Amino acid sequence: MTKILIAAAIAAMAAPAFAGQRNVNQPAAPTSPAGAGGLTTGNGRGRGAQPPQGPAPKLPDGRPDFSGVWQVAGPVGDLAQGMPKGEEIPLNAAGKAEMAKRESKDDPEANCLPTGVPRVAPYPMRMLQTATHVFILFEGNIHSFRQIFVDGRKHPDDPDPTWYGNSIGHYEGQTLVVDTIGFNDKFWFDFRGHPHSEKLHTIERYTRTNLGTLKVETTIDDPVYYSKPFTVTFNGRLRPNEELMEYICQENEQDSKHIKGPAGTP
């Protein structure tokens, strides 16, 4: 079955209702099923100019400063784009079988549900830091957010499964390390349909390599669908002087009914 994405016409119909308007000199945001999905590589491509240059800032206490609006720091269309050159995602037989069953129309993200970890939508996100928490606020999808506890607490013994899991973090030099468990098994890692189970465990390493670049390395460990843990790396770029806009995916969503065929990148 051939995958059909009626890109230009659908993008025009499914444009979200925004609370404001971005600078008209900036390229338009990429569009895809449900207005947030897979038409970028997830490697920092997308709107605007090259990231600003300069040293990475620090907070007064010496911790790295991740605050600001960032454009893409995770997989969008294909998780494999974050793998080291020459390496493949280590799907086991169960993972390959599950992936082969998936249809594009069933992608939860294409139906306005959360992206999970490490997948992102190709729209900006804002990072906020306090002494006890790091928050990630997403413009895309359904205005969802993540909270990362950096107050020294441990994971609960039996966390309720959720889309973004239970995240605890700590700082290693200029890197924020985030350990997450307690995921549900509902989100896909990408448009291709790479699966995961409730046994998913991720370790993310956030490093601001310079003023304008955010490097995110995510180690994925899921023994149900993968033969061994593996690590994907994606970059984000700073969006200076930009604010998140109100984007409600469910409003005027007209794309998902046009998505047909096996799961895969557009």
In brief, what are we looking at here?
This protein is mainly β. It is 6% helix and 24% strand.
What does this 3D model show about the protein?
The protein is mainly beta and 266 residues long. The protein has one domain (7-258). Helix content is 6%, strand content 24%. It has 2 helices and 9 strands, in the order αβαββββββββ. It has a 9-stranded mixed β-barrel with strand order 1-2-3-4-5-6-7-8-9. The longest helix is centred in the middle third of the chain and has 9 residues, at 93-101.
State mean pLDDT (0 to 100 scale). Answer: 83
The largest sheet has its strands arranged as: 1-2-3-4-5-6-7-8-9
Low-confidence stretches: 1-46
- Strand proportion, as a percent range, falls in 15-25%
* First and last CA, distance: 14 Å
Throw out a few tags for this protein.
266 residues; mainly beta; nine-stranded mixed β-barrel; 2 helices; 9 strands; 6% helix; 24% strand; globular
Secondary-structure topology with pairs:
Blueprint: H1 7-13, E1 68-71, H2 93-101, E2 124-129, E3 133-138, E4 145-149, E5 166-172, E6 175-181, E7 201-210, E8 213-221, E9 230-238
Parallel strand pairs: 4-5
Antiparallel strand pairs: 1-2, 1-9, 2-3, 3-4, 5-6, 6-7, 7-8, 8-9
